[in-house]
Amino acid sequence: MALSQTLWQAHQAVALACLHHPFVTGIGDGSLEAAKFAYYIAQDRFFLESFARAYSIAAAKAPSWSAFQLFHQMADGVLEELRLHGAYAQSWGVDLDTVKPGSATRQYTDFLLHTAWSQDAPTIAVAMAPCMRLYAFLGQSLVNPAQPPHPYSAWVETYSSDQFEPLVQQLEDFIDDWATDTALVRQTYDYAMACELNFFQAAWQAIPQPHTQG
Fold first, then answer.
1. Which of 9, 31, 56, 71 registers the highest number of CB atoms within 10 A of its CB?
2. What are the structural domain ranges in the chain?
């Protein structure tokens, strides 16, 4: 089994915990409280900024020209997602200029940037792959063509789309080509998966009124 699949399969319990988390199930059926999703959108902005930076650092450390191009392509994709995020946040009444990162967000972004600066490109990719693969898994699991549109339908459509899965596969292909199955690689993947679950839990517990426009 390829390394990327070995790592993913080893973390199925966490993946299922995310899928069945009330925050995620609320996105899936449209029942999630709007204020919780607004908090999540605001926090995800900080995360995506760090994600883009990590891709750029990985590009500088890329072991081949094709890998350099891949990481820049992935960073460009995150920048586009951030542009869409701004419009999305506005539609949910979130003033991004007044929002500060929560502890779960900071935990995740500090980990990503520390890994990016201190490790090689394959290990950086391992730190980033859980987010990509998990969101594809969630989107594909939640999509339900028979369900009427609801406020979170666009979120589900984005991560279940035919455009998102190839991006995930490209990152995992890089891991399979360049990463080695070491204790550090497994610990890195494990920590990133734990951060994903913590991110959803923080959004579920959030009381975001101060961060929304009245």
1. 71
2. 3-209
Calpha distance 6→141 (Å, rounded): 20
30: left (phi over 0), alpha (psi -120 to 50) or beta: left
Residue spans of alpha helices (H) in the chain? 3-9, 12-19, 22-29, 34-60, 65-91, 103-118, 121-142, 153-160, 164-178, 183-205
Q: Considering the entire predicted model, what is its pTM?
A: 0.92
Predicted local confidence at residue 207, as pLDDT: 66
Backbone CA torsion sign across 26, 84, 72, 48: negative
Q: With cut-offs at 50, 70 and 90, classify the pLDDT of residue 214.
A: very low
Residue 31: CA count within 13 A, CB half-sphere: 7
Q: Backbone phi, then psi, for 9, in 5-degree steps?
A: -65, -30
What CA–CA distance (Å, rounded) separates 45 from 203?
A: 13
SS3 category, 120? coil
Query: Which class is 3-209 in CATH?
Result: mainly alpha
| 149 DSSP assignment | P
